[in-house]
Design brief:
This protein has a seven-stranded mixed β-sheet, with helices on both faces. The chain has 242 residues and is of the alpha/beta class. The chain has helices at 4-22, 52-61, 77-92, 96-102, 104-117, 133-144, 173-185, 227-241, and strands spanning 26-31, 42-47, 67-71, 124-126, 148-153, 191-197, 207-213. It contains eight helices and seven strands. It has one domain: Glycerol-3-phosphate (1)-acyltransferase, CATH 3.40.1130. The N and C termini lie far apart (40 Å). The longest helix has 19 residues, at 4-22.
Length: 242
């Protein structure tokens, strides 16, 4: 049986073309690319404001195989189709159904390709409606094997009422994950914070996608008396770094 990395290599040419199409008209400007780790366990944490454009951007700029966490609905063709319909309705309002009809054939090909291959390349399914313990266990397994995982946070939404509408406060998941790995396994996993700006610009309107990559951070530098205090200190420090 082929490894996840081997499966990813097989479809890399298709993914490269698909990513180029997803960010059509956009120029990627990266600051801090030297902060990406090329080997060993790594958690990459970023904001998620542009749905598919965020994923395409990360895939193109990270210099090693990475394993995404993703909504489990994407693994099923019907569920993925419904997810896309809801996305069009949320962003395009009454024009959404018409746009969905126009791109129907292209959308069907995309759904078939993604849903058929997303599990083969090691993507970690996350059930957003329930506790994420199974996903966290899979993340721990990957990290102990020296893999790099990425979690994008924000559900593809811009929070206009927030002081920084494009970079939502980082959630606690990545901080808890690295804390538990250190406490239980003695593994101090570096966490690389990433901030993405510009992917909220609608497809295919021209523009710049700016990506700021912070230096890797370690939970051991923020240890406190309790899990909650440590996690909050670490989470806040990640936000400040990007």
């Amino acid at each position: 049986m082929a490894t996840f990395e081997e499966e990813l290599k097989k479809i890399h040419p298709i993914l490269e073309r698909l990513c180029n199409f997803m960010i059509l008209g956009k120029k990627i400007v990266v600051k801090g690319s030297e902060n990406f780790l090329r080997e060993g366990p790594n958690i990459i944490v970023g904001n998620h404001i542009g749905t598919f454009k965020d994923i395409a951007t990360i895939y193109k700029i990270v210099p090693r195989p990475v394993f995404f966490t993703a909504n489990k609905l994407i693994f099923d063709k019907k569920d993925f189709d419904n997810l896309i319909r809801k996305h069009f309705h949320r962003h395009l309002k009454s024009f959404g159904p018409f746009f969905n009809l126009i791109i129907g054939p292209l959308k069907s090909r995309l759904i078939n390709f993604v849903s058929s291959n997303i599990g083969k390349v090691g993507t970690i399914p996350v059930d957003l409606s329930k506790k994420k313990s199974m996903a966290l266990e899979k993340c721990q397994e990957y990290l102990k094997e020296g893999k790099a995982i990425i979690t994008l946070q924000g559900w593809g939404r811009v929070m206009s009422s927030d002081s920084n509408p494009y970079v939502m406060p980082f959630r606690k998941g990545a901080s808890i994950l690295t804390y538990k790995l250190y406490r239980k396994e003695g593994i101090s996993v570096p966490v690389t914070p990433v901030a993405i700006f510009g992917t909220h610009i609608p497809f295919p309107i021209p523009g710049k996608i700016k990506v700021n990559i912070g230096e890797p951070m370690y939970i051991t530098d923020y240890m406190s008396d309790s899990l909650l205090a440590t996690v909050n200190r670490f989470r806040k420090a990640m936000e400040d770094r990007v």
